[in-house]
């Protein structure tokens, strides 16, 4: 069968193109270190890689959530530990001031100290993590507690909400890492002028304690001291709860780390190239391309004279 010159040239060009494409792909594998660089390389393999990558992204998001949650828990625990220390200090001060050996002047001086400690507790109740308030519920963008009067506060107002801030650490698993401030420090919808009201409110107790000291009221001092005991229990329970949640975060973080390694290894298995094998393949493709070039050049040099 007679083959036309055009058919020969077309065949040579096609074969040369195939050899060049094979060499290009082999070079791409060596350069990228990946066996899959585009969908056409391995459609099924690419789908598997994308699925595993999606799972890995979800795990990495959980890891970030856990990191955020631990920061919130640690800052909240630190704030409550300091508040616990302040309440303990106030209780010791109350014991001294309830003594018959103390006079009105000493109690008035102590009242100034209690006023300063009250402001410290308010500041700690407004603890932030990266600009977000820990004790404001899900209303994290504004300070949850404020004094009604900076010069002479008679009440502390709560501006947060009653839904604790939570983070997701697993499928359908939420952990409360922030706090509803009222559940810790007490409801502010009370009669702040009534010394017998608001027994569960930290700030009301401190204000009543301060006022009792200013008024040289021993009975009022003793009433405030009795309330301090219940506030200390709340503070210590809150610290314990936060510590328990932090331990839970530790356990979950270990699981997440193991999952990340598993998914990363799986992706590597699916798409990473064996470099030694890839280099050998590239060298073979280069030799094939050079052979195709040499053969093509000889064919292209042929003319009618070669057939005479």
What does this structure look like?
The chain is mainly α and 308 residues long. It has a domain at 54-264: f41 fragment of flagellin, N-terminal domain. Helices cover 66% and strands 6% of the residues. The chain contains seven helices and six strands. The protein has helices at residues 5-32, 43-97, 104-125, 181-185, 202-214, 218-271, 275-301, and strands at 128-129, 132-133, 145-147, 156-158, 166-170, 173-176. Strands 1-2 form a two-stranded antiparallel ribbon. A two-stranded antiparallel sheet has the order 3-4. Helix 1 (5-32) runs antiparallel to helix 7, helix 2 packs antiparallel against helix 6 (218-271) and helix 3 runs antiparallel to helix 5. The longest helix is centred in the first third of the chain and has 55 residues, at 43-97. The radius of gyration is 37 Å and the shape is rod-shaped. The two termini are 18 Å apart. Residues 304-308 have low confidence and may be disordered.
């Amino acid at each position: 069968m007679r083959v036309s010159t055009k058919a020969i040239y077309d065949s040579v060009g096609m074969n040369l193109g195939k050899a060049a494409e094979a060499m290009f792909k082999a070079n791409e594998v060596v350069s990228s270190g990946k066996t899959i660089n585009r969908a056409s390389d391995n459609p099924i393999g690419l789908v598997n890689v994308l699925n595993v990558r999606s799972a890995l992204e979800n795990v990495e998001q959980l890891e970030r959530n856990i990191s955020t949650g631990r920061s919130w828990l640690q800052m909240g625990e630190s704030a409550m530990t300091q508040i616990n220390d302040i309440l303990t200090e106030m209780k010791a001060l109350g014991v001294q001031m309830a003594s018959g050996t103390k006079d009105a002047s000493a109690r008035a001086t102590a009242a100034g100290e209690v006023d300063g400690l009250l402001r410290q507790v308010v500041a700690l109740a407004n603890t932030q993590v990266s600009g977000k308030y820990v004790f404001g519920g899900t209303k994290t963008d504004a300070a949850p507690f404020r004094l009604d009067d900076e010069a002479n506060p008679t009440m502390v107002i709560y501006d947060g909400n009653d839904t604790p801030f939570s983070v997701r650490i697993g499928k359908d698993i939420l952990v409360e890492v922030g706090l509803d401030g009222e559940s810790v420090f007490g409801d502010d919808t009370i009669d702040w002028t009534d010394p017998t009201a608001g027994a569960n409110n930290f700030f009301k107790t401190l204000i009543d304690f301060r006022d009792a000291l200013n008024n040289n009221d021993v009975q009022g001092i003793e009433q405030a001291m009795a309330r301090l005991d219940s506030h200390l229990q709340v503070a210590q329970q809150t610290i314990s709860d936060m510590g328990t949640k932090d331990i839970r975060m530790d356990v979950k973080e270990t699981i997440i780390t193991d999952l990340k390694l598993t998914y990363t290894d799986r992706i590597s298995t699916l798409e990473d190239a064996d470099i030694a094998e890839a280099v050998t393949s590239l060298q073979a493709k280069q030799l094939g391309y050079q052979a195709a070039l040499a053969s093509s050049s000889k064919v292209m040099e042929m003319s009618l004279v070669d057939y005479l």
